[in-house]
Write a structure and sequence with these properties.
The protein is about 45% helix and about 10% strand. It is mainly α. A 3-stranded parallel beta sheet has the order 1-2-3. Helix 2 packs parallel to helix 3. One of its GO terms (biological process) is cell division. Keywords: Cell cycle, Cell division. It holds the Pfam family cREC_REC.
Length: about 110
């Protein structure tokens, strides 16, 4: 979920919090990378995190790629407190090797 960065190869892009929530509800999401600051009038990453917890729509793995330290802390605390044990939550952005692996798997 990001309002301006390009979508890495092999991933599906949600440009708004609402799009992200629909994808989590309607699709099988393996890896989610959340931004916090989504622009005026849009749901923030913290609001999306709270709705993920409330709806129980967790992916298998979550990364937090925001540059906002407040946003990262807020999203992490919300998700950590409500996540099931099988969900892997990372405090920071997705490593390059994960992006390359997903892109490679998408080519198959």
């Amino acid at each position: 979920m990001d309002d301006w960065r390009p979508c890495p190869e092999g991933f599906a892009l949600a440009r708004t919090g609402e799009e992200c929530l629909v994808m989590l509800k309607e699709c099988e999401v393996d890896i989610l990378s959340l931004d916090h600051e989504m622009g005026p009038g849009e749901l923030s990453g913290s609001e999306v995190a709270a709705l993920i917890v409330a709806n129980g729509t967790f992916p298998r793995e979550i990364y937090l790629h925001t540059s906002s330290e407040y946003g990262r802390r807020s999203m992490y605390q919300t998700l950590y407190a409500g996540k099931p044990d099988h969900v892997v939550l990372h405090r920071g952005p997705m490593p390059e090797d994960v992006r390359k692996r997903v892109a490679s798997e998408a080519e198959r």
